[in-house]
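Ticket #4471: complex job returned nothing on first submit. Input attached below:
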Amino acid sequence: MNDDLNQKVKKRRTFAIISHPDAGKTTITEQLLLFSGAIREAGTVKAKGKKSNKFAKSDWMEIEKQRGISVTSSVMQVDYDGFQVNILDTPGHEDFSEDTYRTLMAVDAAVMVIDSGKGIEPQTKKLFEVCSMRGIPIFTFMNKLDRDGREPLELVAELEEVLGIDAFPMNWPMGMGKNLLGLYDLYNQRVELKNDDSEVYLPLDDNGEVEGDYDFKQSSIYTQALEDAQLLHEAGNPFDRDLINRGKLTPVFFGSALTGFGVQTFFDAFVDLAPSPSETETEDEQVIQPDDAQFTGFIFKIQANMNPAHRDRIAFIRICSGEFEKGMMVTLNRTQKDIRLAHTTQFMADAREEVETAVAGDIIGLYDTGNFQIGDTIYSGKKSVQFKPLPQFTPELFMRVSPKNVMKQKSFHKGIEQLVQEGAIQLYKTYHTEEYIIGAVGQLQFEVFQYRLLHEYNAEVIMTPLGHKIARWIDPDDLNPNMSSNRNLLAKDRFGNPVFLFENTFAENWFKDKYPDIELKSLL
Ligand code: GDP
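Support reply: We reran it on our side without changes. The output follows.
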């Protein structure tokens, strides 16, 4: 153990903000940047203009252009109250893909932003499930308190009913919308009054009442909040830090990202309660501590052409232990090749910066000339390290692909191979005829694939949609040629394992009835 390194690691908070589109993820990120002094005025992050010029689905150029601007929000590092905070973006809607899921493998905690007028929406649920699978702590922010939303009790109950996670309200709204009086802060034992200029904090006495004479204490909004707080105290879940750490209990905060009300209270508690980077397990079940002197890390995301003018490719690495120093030599475990990390980048609010040093928990971007693949482990020194593979996600959408120009077969194959390695898309082949089928979690992956094949490999492709399929793997020994029909297409994955692509649940159940002894497996 190294004391100095340990101190630095303890000050790291690496998290993702998850939400359904429009719940307020960008707005709250911006508030965090404002508080940390990384930006001076609101609107910087919003420069993406994602609402005003919604791109046509097929127009990847436009998406790329946007990406050029929005890279700042894909990974950001800011100082907040003495903490080094790494924020990872998890795009919601059109860009929803495996990339989003994998990003969640690189964080230690998640902030879940919910629109209090809408409650839990589909994308919130999907992202929550991935976080929950990893058992990481999840902090809930009920947003848009400046508007009339749903009843707070109902919102909290929904967390438990729909997501199946226990909730602990850290604070409780006193009114909402135009009648918003403030927050009854159970955690800090104070009332935070809404005040147009600055926050006003009033301490609570032993009975949970605000000390002193104030007019608002006569209002029914205040007495209602007192009653609710009493109810939560008696019937709610107790505060339990261990359960929070294991992702079994979510602390819930109310506030308004737009006006900033309650946001600082939220982030203060977040940096206090969220865990610092912890140990990482290797493939052979060894445990690597974040303050181990050996530098280790894994690549969870590769983004090519982030800057269209330079055609660069950046491999994002999560540092798991040790300290990164500019120019250091590392070994890429998969190939055993030694690589000098001379050219790296870190993303501050509105600029990229060369990284001088970084420690466990930090995310840095490595300029890549084609060395790295998703899931790669790199390390310094002699002791070889391989972290567990990143999970593969069961694709839901499929396309048949073939080259438009048979003369360009070679670049077609090369392009597909590289994009598959990058984790941009999953590749399958029909079992006997070996026609290419690609699988994705989100539609946008296909568009990126097609665009990149054309522009980076000069290969035009014909894509025939196969639509939604349920992909299920079977043991190769169980396979018999009669099993395949037009409702369950037999394919093989890129390792040659048999997989059925069922048309729908009906087809899957029909198969299960017919072959009760065959086990059907999915990825994650
Ligand atoms: P994202 O899609 O989750 O990143 O959501 P944005 O941060 O872009 O917010 C979506 C819309 O909701 C924007 O028009 C925001 O101005 C608005 N918004 C975000 N937070 C609040 C809030 O606290 N109150 C209100 N009234 N509107 C908000």
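Confidence is low (pLDDT under 50) at residues 43-73. Closing as resolved unless it happens again.
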